[in-house]
Fold:
Amino acid sequence: MSASAIDTIALARDLLRCPSVTPNEGGALALLEKLLKTAGFTVNRLTFSEPGTAPVENLYAKIGSGKPHLVFAGHTDVVPPGDDDAWSKPPFAGEIVGDMLYGRGAVDMKGAIACAVAATLDHLAAEPLQGAISFLITGDEEGVAVNGTVKLLQWAAKRGEKFDHCILGEPTNTDTLGDMIKIGRRGSQNGTLVVTGKQGHVAYPERADNPVRGLVTLMGALMDEPLDQGSAQFGPSNLEFTSIDIGNPTANLIPAIARARFNVRFNDNYTQESLRALIEVRAQAVARGAIRWHIEWEPSNAAAFVAPPGPFVDLVAGAVAEVTGRMPALSTTGGTSDARFIKDYCPVLEFGLVGRTMHQVDERTPVGDLTQLTAVYRKILEWYFGYPDQVLGAPAAKSE
Structure:
C-alpha cells in the first residue's frame, strides 16, 4: 500500500478550516479526496440534486476488494455557527487552546472523520489489507438529507458495492469517550393535528363552534397516556406537540380552524403505518364524533432499527474497552442520523466523540479524545481484518 501515517490533529484542524456549512462543500471533500487518492484509494466525487433542493457534493472512496468490507460513514457539512462574535475563537479557524480544539464541526463530526482516516492510513501502512475499506462521506446530513447518504448508497449499490459492516462517527458519548455506542435509533414521525370548527363572534358562542376546544381535548388525550412501555432495546415511545397555530389575529373572533404540530419518537414496536393507525384510533376514541378532526402526516424515512447482536457489536465494544478502559453502554437513545439509511445495506454502529458541545457556540473537543478515538478505530481495524471469519460469522474450522 502507498498509505502512510498522518497526524490526526493536523487533519482535524484542516477540515475545521473548511467553511462547509450545509449544503456548501467548503473544500472539505476536496481535502479528503486529495489525501485518500494519494493513499491509493479510488475516489468518486458525486453531486446529487432534486427540484427545489440545493445540489449536494458527496464522496465515496474505496481501497481493496472482496470480504470483509468495512465502511466508515460520516458528513463534512456543519450547521451555521451563528454570530461569529459570540465565539471565543473563530468558528472556522481550528484553533487549539490548552487541550481543546475549537471549531464548528469539531465534535459533529469532522473530528471523527479525521480519526477514521488517520487510523485507516496507519493500518494500511502497517498491514496488508485482506478485504476492503470504504469512506462514505456526505455533505447534507445537517440539511434535508435527500441528496447525500441515501443517494450515495443507491449509487454504490448499482455499482455492485456490498458492505459487511459500517461505523458512523456521530458524537455518541455523553460524558466521557468510551461511555456509549449507539446500536440503533428510534423512529421519527411528524404530523399536524387539524380541528375544524365554525367561525363566529365570541359574544355569541352558541352560533359558532370553537375548534380550539377540540384541539386542546385531543392534544391532552394524545399526550396523557403513554404510547407503550418500551421494548427490549428501546425506551417508551413519546409524542410531543411542538407548535400550535390558530392563525387568528382578532381577539373577538372564534376561528374556523386550529392546528397543532407534533413529533413522535417511536421504538421498534411499530412501523410508520402501525404508529399512525394507533394515534388515529386514540384520537377517534376521544373525539366520539363530536370533534371534526384529521391528521396531516408528513413523509418519513426514519423507522426504528437496531443492529443485531453478535460478533461485530462485540468487536467494537471490545475495542472501545481495550483503548479507553470503559465498557460502553449499548444505547438506542437520541435523535435520527444517517444510520437510518445505512441500516438497509448492512449492520451499522455509531461511535464518535463526546457530544456535549455539538451545535453550540464554542463547539470543541479535547485533543486527547481525538488521539484516543483514532486508537479505537485503529484497534477495530486490526481486529476486524485480523479475524474475518469471526467478524462475518463464518463457522470455525473443524480440528483434526
Summary: The radius of gyration is 24 Å. Confidence is low (pLDDT under 50) at residues 395-400. Residues 367-386 form the longest helix (20 residues). The first strand starts at residue 42 and ends at 48.
